[in-house]
Each structure stands twice: as C-alpha cells, then as structure tokens.
C-alpha cells in the first residue's frame, strides 16, 4: 500500500465516523450513498449534499428551474440589465430574488425564491415547519447557477447526455468539442425578454445547451456574428411613407 493510499484510507475512516456522528435520523438516502462512494468521503452532511448536486449537475438544473416555476415571476418584476442586484449583461441569467426590491430575506433561496431547509435542502424532510433562517440558497440552486454561468465546465456531463454525438453533424464528438447555446443569448434578450422568468431560465439550462465539434461551432458563431452585424446596420435606418405611397428608407 502506497503512502497516498494509506493517507486516503485513514482520512476516509475519520471522515466517515464524523459524518455518521453528525447525521440526523432522517437524511436523503441517495445523498448518503453518493457520499460513501466518493474517493474522499465528505465529513459533514452539508458537504455531502453539496457534493451530491455538484456531481448530478443536470438533475440540479432541472430542480432549480422547477423551484423557480413554483415561485413564479415576482409581481412588478421585468428583466433589466444593470443596477443593484441585476446582471450587467444578457449573458447572465436573470435572478429577480437577488434584486433588493424582490428579495425574500434569509430562509428563502436567492436564486429560486423557495424556502431553504436543513443542509441547504429544498424540502422539509425533518418536519421542522420553518425554513433555516441561517441559509440563503439551496445547494442544488448553487450548483445550477454555476452551471448556467459556466456550462463549459460540465462538458463531460453534456457529452454523455448526447451519447458523444455532435448535436449538429451527428458525428462522434472530438476531445476539442465545445458547449454551445442552441439559441444564442443575445437573441434571448432581443426576442424573449418579456417571457415569464421561470421560462427564461431554460435558455441558460440544459434545454438550450448542446455540445458540438469545434469546426461546427466556429461556423455557427460566424453566422451569428454576421446576423448580429446585419441587425445593427438595419437599426440605423427607419422606413417611412412618402406622399406618393412609396417606402423611403432614411438614415437616422
């Protein structure tokens, strides 16, 4: 047995003892099963929950969007860019409950708006009757948020979902394959900004993500850049009606 193996074995024995000592009578079985199978066992229930969602990222994405749908769009909220608590770019997902005007305070998730319970869990398995006022987010929502803002970090999970086939060509994905938004985010801002907030999150989540080979991605980005350029150029003009009834294009 190598020195590293000896250290890992001793460390896992200690971590397992600490985890089992801290476990409540009720604890999600899949999370515990996952924790005990890790190369390095999480030593606390909260770390076990966080590890579970980090390693089940597509499940975390679905759950976070489902919790957001349960909260719904806050009354009076609209997707805007800039300002306190708002994203500074359309590339970041809208998060109304991070806006001070719509925040629900401690005990509610700042991402989905739903109550947070022990260990950052999304359901009150312990029948406590009240959320954890020391928490401000679900462990699943944190994992989903990181996925939404940096989907390229989860290329392995997305490749597996596609059975290692390019979403555009159907060919086998190469090692250089890249994550792409099927509908570009600039078009989401331009065409869907008035959609209900929970629906908007799907454009950052798995429903709007695909893995494509680099060559196909380069071609798609080139076409999108050309389309954006044409849109900007057209925005410089306006169409009016002259006295003879003909349309006249005037530069503004």
Characterization of this structure:
The longest helix has 22 residues, at 214-235. The protein contains nine helices and four strands; from the N terminus they run H-H-H-H-H-H-E-H-H-E-H-E-E. It has 252 residues and is mainly alpha-helical. It starts with a helix and ends with a strand. Helix 4 (57-71) packs across helix 5 (139-149). Among the domains are: 1-55, no CATH class; 150-237, no CATH class. The chain has a two-stranded antiparallel ribbon. The protein has a two-stranded antiparallel ribbon with strand order 3-4. It is 42% helix and 7% strand. The mean pLDDT is 91.
Low-confidence stretches: none
**Cα-to-Cα separation, first versus last residue:** 77 Å
Question: What's the average pLDDT?
Answer: 91
Assembly of the depicted chains: single chain
Q: So how many helices? A: 9
User: What share of the residues does DSSP label as strand, in percent?
Assistant: 5-15%
Number of strands: 4
Largest sheet: 2 strands, antiparallel
**Shape from CA axes?**
flat
Radius of gyration, in Å, reads 23 Å
List the secondary-structure elements in sequence, H or E: HHHHHHEHHEHEE
Helix content bin: 40-55%
For the biggest β-sheet, the strand order reads 1-2
Name the structural class. mainly alpha
Protein name: HNH endonuclease
